[in-house]
Structures are given as C-alpha cells and as structure tokens.
Amino acid sequence: DIEFAKENEISFIAQSFERTADDVLALQELLGSSHQWVKIIAKIENHEGVQEAESISKVAYGLMVARGDLGIEMDIARLPRLQRQLVDTALRMGRRCVMATHLLESMVENPIPTRAEAIDVANAVYEGVDAVLLSSETSIGRRPVEVVEQLRRILEESERAPGLNFSQSLPTSDTKQNLARSAVELAERCAASGIIVVTRSGLMADLVTNCAPKDVPIFAFSNLGHTLCRLMLNRGVYAHRTSFNPNPELTIQSALEVLGEREGLVESDLLVVVSDVLSEGAVDSIQLRRAQPS
After folding, report:
1. Residue 169 has pLDDT above 80, yes or no
2. Angle ∠(93,16,72) on CA atoms, nearest 5
3. Residue 218 CA to its chain's centroid (Å)
4. Mutual orientation of helices 79-92 and 115-127 as an angle, nearest 10°?
5. Cα dihedral angle (131, 137, 139, 140), rounded to 10 degrees?
6. Across the beta sheet with 39-44, what order do the strands follow?
7. Deepest of 8, 10, 15, 259, by most Cβ within 10 A of its Cβ?
8. Measuring CA to CA, which residue among 42, 11, 40 is closest to residue 28?
C-alpha cells in the first residue's frame, strides 16, 4: 500500500491505531522523500492515542477522530468530551482535523438521516473540523449518492455560521504563521471578499487555514497538482491552478482573472493577497487588491 501511494502520488495516508509519535515517524521513514506530498493523517482510535494526541500532532499532517473504534476502546460516556478535546488539539497545533464514523449511519438503510445525525454533523462544523469522512454509509449503504447529497446540504447550511476566528490562539513564535494571521485579521477588518494565497507547497494556505477566518473564503493558487489536491482537505479553501510568472505582478493578475471568471467576484470586491513565493529570496508579502470582473 505504501509503495502504491508513493508511485501514484496519493495525497493522504490514514494511519490506524496510532499510539505514539514514533508510529508516525516510522511511516514517514518508509515514505522517504515521498513524504513531501503523501501526508499522514493519524487516526486516534485508542486510549494511548488520546493520551499522546498532542505529540502525535506535532509530526502528523492531521488527526482523524475515528469515533467507531474510539467508542469501543473508551467509555462511551467520555466520547463527546474526547471528540471536542481532540479537535481542539488539532486546531491548537495547526493541524488538519477529520471527523469520521457514524455520521449518517441510519442512511445505510433509510432515505433520510435522523435529526440527531444532522445535529451531530453540524456540531462537527461548529467545533472546527476541516472535513468529515463517510464509511459504511457509502461502502455498503443502499443510497450512497443520496448520502453524500444530504451530507453536503447539512454541511453547507452549517458553514453559514461564522468560523472560530482562531488566529489569537495560535503560537506567535512562527514568522510565517504571524504573516498568515496578519492577512486574516486585515481581511476581516476590511470586510474583504477573500484571501488569495499564492503558494507552491501549500504551507502558506495551511497557515491561513489555521487561523479559521470568521467569514472570509481562502483562494489558494499553486502550480503543482499534488498541492492543489492536498488543499482540498483544508476548511474554507478553494484551490485553483495557475502558472507562476517570473514577474510577480502577472501572477497576481492571473489569479484575479481566475476569480473573476470562476468565483463571480466583481470589481468592487476587496481581496487580501498573501504569498511567500512571489518575490526572489525569502521575502513574504501582504497586499490589498481589487477584483477583476470577468
């Protein structure tokens, strides 16, 4: 499986039953240089994983709250608190967080989810997860397409609520994270229509995502396909491919044109542009721009 992931540049590997950070490091060693694009999502499914969640999150790309096995391994009464605790750990450590198992379980047989399931999915959004993962609903369920449609409707409605505005809770020692936080705060104060992130590796888009903007979408532009695929996991990120021009201004103009065509932005829309690849050398930048209508 690992060799297949390496050869085909799979975006993510979900590693089961993590107990310590050493489990992640061992998988990273097996991946070798492929670890640059094959990212590890650590599935927290047992007592040891819960206890070591913070150290695991330091070396993994993200955490998955795998509620099925976690509910078997741990006292069921503790599961709601553990879920919130694990999501908070991922957010605090600047890691992606995925919620999995028993999201719309009743739809394995039934045409619509229960009210409790709808509220459970919405609560995952309110807690700040980046993504949710279906399992039996689509693998053995009678109506896999309808399940995805129902889940999409619940998520889109829930996402109307403001984000967590997590920027003030992040570490202040990282220069690039501070740049991302400044971009988010500027966008919110100016009521910007979006944040444009020009990134090669996806790192800057990750850092902006970490801030959990209240109501500002993130438009990430990269020239690398595997970066764009990976960014599909990030909450609130809309990923677009673009070529990087030696002239930074032309790269920005290209991004603005794409947003005018695909996202329907109008000339009066204000956008914050943040990048760590536009200038030569290690120069980071934040700009304010107006959208270009299609």
Report:
1. no
2. 100
3. 11
4. 30
5. 170
6. 12-15, 39-44, 62-66, 96-100, 131-133
7. 259
8. 40
Kindly state the helix (H) or strand (E) to which residue 119 belongs, with its residue range. helix 115-127
**Residue type at 270?**
L
- The answer, as to whether pTM is greater than 0.85, is yes
Task: Identify the CA nearest to 231 among candidates 279, 265, 199.
Answer: 199
Element (H, E) at 82: helix 79-92
Span 60-65, average pLDDT: 97
Structure tokens given for 284: 């980071």
CB distance 171 to 195 below 8 Å:
no
Q: What is the set of domains in the chain, with CATH numbers?
A: 2-158 (3.20.20.60), 166-290 (3.40.1380.20)
Average pLDDT rounded to a whole number, residues 2-10: 88
**pLDDT score recorded for residue 162:** 75
Please give the single-letter amino acid code of residue 197. V
The average pLDDT across 125-138 equals 95
